[in-house]
């Protein structure tokens, strides 16, 4: 990864709370990415860059690391078709630090009609191989897809900061086609998705989240 790309990602992370500027900055960073950079971006999830302030404060470091992870995920999404080979490789790679971001970006693109059929083929093939619930990798994928179904908006708003990427980014930043939403609805009828869906519902109940 070039120094220019690293600086572009850091510059985007500084703008994380400024939605429109952040999106533009993430898109600019993605435009700087070469073929080999997408995998290196995923590697940054394990070791985000040090805080730009240089202050050795645990709370500031944690906040900066969270902003960086959100930024890396957005850069992957903004890479669109150019990032797809890496997204497909890591979207279902359990225990990989960048797996949630890879799946999230792949899901958002598919929801917009970018290789949707391939996404669902990969999903049906890759999902059963993940550890069973309540393993977070499996529940995370259900959370992402639930953003297109009937999970209460209050749940998404309440918990979207508790993970590097949550389905809040799906419904906030990406539009979805009617075909994609219908396909997600069909998935819940498959036994392997039903089991994870039930586990996700129990998790909501434990957190005191009501439907509606």
Describe this structure in words.
There is one protein chain. This protein is mostly helical and 212 residues long. It has 2 domains: 1-83, no CATH class; 91-212, no CATH class. The protein contains 12 helices and no strands. The chain has helices at 3-14, 19-31, 37-43, 58-79, 84-90, 99-111, 116-126, 136-146, 153-159, 168-173, 178-187, 191-206.
Short description:
By secondary structure, this protein is mainly α. It is built from 12 helices and no strands. It has 2 domains: 83 residues, no CATH class; 122 residues, no CATH class.
The backbone outline, from C-alpha atoms, is globular
Task: Classify the helix fraction into a percent range.
Answer: 55-70%
Question: What is the number of strand segments?
Answer: 0
The helix/strand order is HHHHHHHHHHHH
SS-based structural class? Answer: mainly alpha
Low-pLDDT ranges: 150-174
Largest sheet: none
* Number of separate structural domains: 2
What is the terminal-to-terminal distance? 45 Å
Average pLDDT confidence is 76
Radius of gyration: 17 Å
Task: Output the number of helix runs.
Answer: 12
In percent terms, what proportion of residues is strand? under 5%
């Amino acid at each position: 990864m070039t120094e220019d790309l690293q600086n572009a990602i850091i510059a985007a992370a500084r703008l994380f709370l400024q939605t429109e500027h952040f999106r533009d900055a993430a898109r600019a960073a993605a435009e700087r990415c070469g073929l080999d950079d997408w995998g290196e971006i995923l590697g940054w999830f394990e070791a985000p860059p040090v805080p730009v302030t240089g202050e050795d404060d645990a709370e500031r470091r944690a906040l900066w690391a969270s902003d960086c992870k959100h930024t890396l995920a957005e850069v992957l999404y903004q890479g669109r078709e150019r990032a797809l080979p890496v997204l497909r490789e890591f979207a279902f790679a359990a225990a990989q630090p960048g797996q949630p971001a890879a799946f999230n970006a792949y899901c958002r693109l598919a929801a917009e009609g970018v290789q949707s059929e391939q996404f669902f083929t990969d999903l049906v093939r890759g999902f059963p191989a993940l550890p069973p619930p309540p393993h977070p990798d499996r529940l995370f994928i259900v959370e992402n897809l639930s953003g297109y179904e009937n999970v209460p908006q209050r749940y998404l708003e309440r918990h979207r900061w508790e993970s590097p990427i949550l389905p809040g980014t799906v419904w906030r930043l990406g539009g979805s086609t009617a075909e994609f939403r219908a396909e997600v609805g069909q998935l819940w009828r498959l036994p392997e998705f039903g089991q994870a869906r039930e586990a996700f519902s129990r998790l909501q109940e434990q957190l005191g989240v009501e439907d509606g």
